[in-house]
Amino acid sequence: MTDHPSLQPYVDAWTQSMEAISELVTPLVEGEWNRRTECPGWSVRDVVSHIIGLECEVMGDPRPIHSLPRDILHVRDEKSRHMEVQVDVRRHHTGPEMTSEFEYVFIRRSRHLRNEKRGPEAEVTNVLPFGPRKLTLERQLMMRAFDVWVHEQDLRRALDAPGDLDSPGAYVARDVMLAALPKVVAKDVGAPPNSAIVFDVSGPVEFMRTVRVDKAGNGTVDGSVSLGPTATLAMDWETYSRLAAGRVRPEAVADRVKIDGDAELAAEILRHFSVTP
């Protein structure tokens, strides 16, 4: 346990997802490591490599010195090139090599977290090639719990092993995704002033939230009911999380999303729904 109880929920969520990933990948035969996931261009091996690489960087390990091939189609800018290095350097590792490294990194990082003495507001370096150069320790732990849960779900869908849609990481993911909604609706889509967009989500993680756009075009999100909203989007939690994580196009899950009210505005929101980099 960390010295600060407010950080523990994120550590617990991260730990549960990491344990789940370990259980998923340990029994895999070699061919299963190559299964395609919904993460563009990445296989099961690649997703696990990404997790290993980021946890190593968070602990301060140096990044690998590695030149990427020029024919990786999903690498289109410097951000994706940065993210791909930790993946490509492990692309020819065997299943046993992958599981051994994952378990070693998991043990190291767990010990690292148990010994954490800094408070939630302590400044840490952002190891990702986007966003602020510095962030709080609390934000870093939240985003690591979010990231590993999203990737756990990538692996589960690729391996046809559903589960953990209501795990602690799922609730961290919900909070991260909801926090991004006002920007999606008010700024990215430009919903009209004084509009209200309701998101009605059912399933293992159930919630209803309203994004309100004020007369100045600023968005806020709350849990109060809106009478006569501009648009309502209803869907199940797995569909919501896949859309918000950019794992599926809106047209591919159109039969799982119900829209009431301004259909054109709702469709535009769905087109901008992905909040992950």
UniProtKB/TrEMBL annotation:
- One Pfam family named in its UniProt record: MDMPI_C
Molecular function (GO) terms for this protein are: isomerase activity; metal ion binding
Task: Note the superkingdom of the native organism.
Answer: Bacteria
Which part of the chain is the Mycothiol-dependent maleylpyruvate isomerase metal-binding domain? 15-156
Q: Does the keyword Isomerase apply?
A: yes
The record's Gene3D superfamilies line, in alphabetical order, gives: dinb family like domain
Q: Does the keyword Isomerase apply?
A: yes
Q: Which InterPro entries match?
A: DinB/YfiT-like (IPR034660), Maleyloyr_isom (IPR017517), MDMPI_C-term_domain (IPR010872), MDMPI_metal-binding (IPR024344)
Q: Which ranges carry the MDMPI C-terminal domain?
A: 172-267
Enumerate the UniProt keywords alphabetically: Isomerase, Pyruvate
Q: What is this protein called?
A: Maleylpyruvate isomerase family mycothiol-dependent enzyme
What is the scientific name of the source organism? Streptomyces albus
Task: Show the taxonomic lineage.
Answer: Bacteria, Bacillati, Actinomycetota, Actinomycetes, Kitasatosporales
